[in-house]
Amino acid sequence: MSVYGIIAEFNPFHFGHVRLKDEIKAAYPDSVLIAVMSGNTVQRGDFSIFDKYQRAKTAVKNGYDLV
Questions:
Q1: What does residue 16 show for φ and ψ, rounded to 5 degrees?
Q2: What values do phi and psi take at 51, rounded to 5?
Q3: What are the tens digits of pLDDT across the range 39-67?
């Protein structure tokens, strides 16, 4: 088993995030995918569209193993 990590904002969560997850899982089926996500403010200093809990929940519902 391998562990892969990405840095993301998920602001908002979109099909590109799903595709990234799908490609990693297809190439490494036994892997664990961890996303390190920004909080209620994003990397550019603005407030996020949704709060961090809602964005993390959406990512987990869409197949990320840990956010």
A1: -65, -35
A2: -70, 165
A3: 898 888 889 999 999 999 999 999 999 99
